[in-house]
From TrEMBL:
<dbReference type="InterPro" id="IPR050426">
    <property type="entry name" value="Glycosyltransferase_28"/>
</dbReference>
<feature type="domain" description="Glycosyltransferase family 28 N-terminal">
    <location>
        <begin position="3"/>
        <end position="61"/>
    </location>
</feature>
<dbReference type="InterPro" id="IPR010610">
    <property type="entry name" value="EryCIII-like_C"/>
</dbReference>
<dbReference type="InterPro" id="IPR002213">
    <property type="entry name" value="UDP_glucos_trans"/>
</dbReference>
<dbReference type="Pfam" id="PF03033">
    <property type="entry name" value="Glyco_transf_28"/>
</dbReference>
<keyword id="KW-0808">Transferase</keyword>
<protein>
    <submittedName>
        <fullName>Glycosyltransferase</fullName>
    </submittedName>
</protein>
<dbReference type="Pfam" id="PF06722">
    <property type="entry name" value="EryCIII-like_C"/>
</dbReference>
<dbReference type="InterPro" id="IPR004276">
    <property type="entry name" value="GlycoTrans_28_N"/>
</dbReference>
<feature type="domain" description="Erythromycin biosynthesis protein CIII-like C-terminal">
    <location>
        <begin position="287"/>
        <end position="392"/>
    </location>
</feature>
């Protein structure tokens, strides 16, 4: 079967699909992954065909401003829709759509008659169990959570409306609003498999049929890849260090955050690794602090005492997989949700607010995370649960079911 995975967003929104795609390819399927241009090397390194989607997903402006984020997202989806049909609709037997690309992919599936399956990294359907992941809100009670979830979907419809309308026109389809298309998929119980662990978010009991949480899809890592010699030597030279990184967040804040991180590490009496990321995090701090670039979580995290991160879905899951505690500093979007989930299962300290982060506050959280065994114990328990899940295998079973049905 020729399978096309369509994903868009930051690296954390694309990287998990490289592992999923590699697993499908190993099972004998032809797999292409459509994403924006910066991820071409990442996709091809996993042995997958790359198809370019238009648009630039690099964070811009104030990423903590919700209205600005909505304007940016709408502009991106509108641009994405202009080239979506060209990139995605070439000879696929099955479309696998992320939460970002599904509002466009539904229309393409209608036009071409191609079956489609949702492969989401976050829960998006309303539930009484928790508030919508994108709002960063605390629980509003079961009724309030469901109401907020429905409102979040309507806001998402508004964001995707311009791009979806132009795509339908391009495809020669009659006009149909984004909300009407979403409701159509819901009534049809369109299947969505969610690539996160139920150790972190148990599947809600009030979800409609067709929605499942199946376990994580892990980024592809070349089996021959090893840690850089300089990093391996640092790890061997002393007790397990703490990693501090903010992924694709905090652009332009590298110098400030680097100095803050070093002060926190020294105050807590810990060795540390700074991961540069989009922030350009770095510090010239002597033999107990090392700065690194891109390193696979799967290789590095098992060697750590703890990790400080922005609570992106992928980094949150990688820390649990390694059985290490976290100190979270969520910045925007779904990050507060994952930060609270980590704290709720006892694998992380209470989230630290990014806007008012201090060296003293970070040092205190690090001291608790590293030296109180309860945090590491909860992380190890989650890791054991995650080892019982096989998210890629669950997707493969769904794909094979579609093959048999077809």
């Amino acid at each position: 079967m020729r399978i096309l995975i369509a994903a868009a967003g930051s690296r954390g929104d694309v990287d998990p699909y490289t592992g999923l795609g590699a697993a499908l390819r190993a099972a004998g399927h032809e797999v292409a992954l459509a994403a924006t241009a910066p991820f071409a090397t990442l996709v091809r390194a996993a042995g997958l065909e790359f198809r370019a989607l238009p648009g630039d997903t690099r964070p811009r402006g104030d990423v903590t401003d919700r209205r600005e984020l909505m304007r940016t997202a709408s502009a991106f989806l509108t641009e994405l829709g202009q080239g979506f049909a060209d990139a995605v609709g070439e000879g696929a037997d099955l479309l696998l759509l992320s939460a970002t690309t599904a509002p466009l992919g539904w229309h393409l599936a209608e036009a071409t008659g191609t079956p489609a399956l949702g492969v989401y990294l976050q829960p998006t359907a309303p539930t009484g169990d928790f508030p919508p992941v994108v709002t960063g809100a605390r629980s509003l009670g079961r009724f309030g959570n469901r109401a907020a979830g429905r409102l979040a979907l309507r806001m998402a419809d508004r964001i995707s409306e311009p791009g979806a309308a132009r795509l339908r026109e391009r495809l020669g389809l009659p006009p149909l609003s984004a909300s009407a298309m979403r409701r159509r998929t819901e009534r049809a119980h369109w299947p969505v498999l969610h690539g996160y662990s139920t150790a972190l978010v148990p599947a809600p009991s009030d979800w409609r049929p067709g929605l499942e949480a199946v376990g994580n899809w892990w980024p592809h890592v070349d089996p021959a890849r090893r840690l850089p010699a300089r990093l391996a030597d640092f790890l061997d030279a002393g007790p397990p260090p703490v990693l501090i990184g903010f992924g694709s967040m905090a652009a332009g804040e590298g110098e400030r955050l680097g100095e803050l991180a070093v002060r926190a590490l020294r105050r807590a009496g810990l060795r540390g690794i700074l991961q540069s990321g989009a922030a350009g995090l770095a510090a010239d701090a002597g033999p107990d602090v090392l700065t690194v670039g891109d390193v696979p979580h799967a290789l590095l995290f098992p060697r750590l005492a703890a990790v400080v991160h922005h609570a992106g879905a992928g980094t949150s899951a990688a820390g649990l997989r390694a059985g290490i505690p976290a100190v979270t500093v969520p910045v925007t979007a779904d990050q507060p949700f994952w930060a609270r989930r980590l704290a709720a299962i006892g694998a992380a300290t209470a989230p630290l607010p990014y806007a008012s982060l201090t060296a003293e506050g970070l040092a205190g959280a690090l001291d608790r995370a590293v030296r109180r065994e309860t945090y590491a114990g909860a992380a190890r328990a989650a890791a054991r649960h995650m080892r019982s899940e096989d998210g890629a295998r669950r997707v493969l079973r769904a794909v094979e079911g579609l093959v048999r049905a077809g």
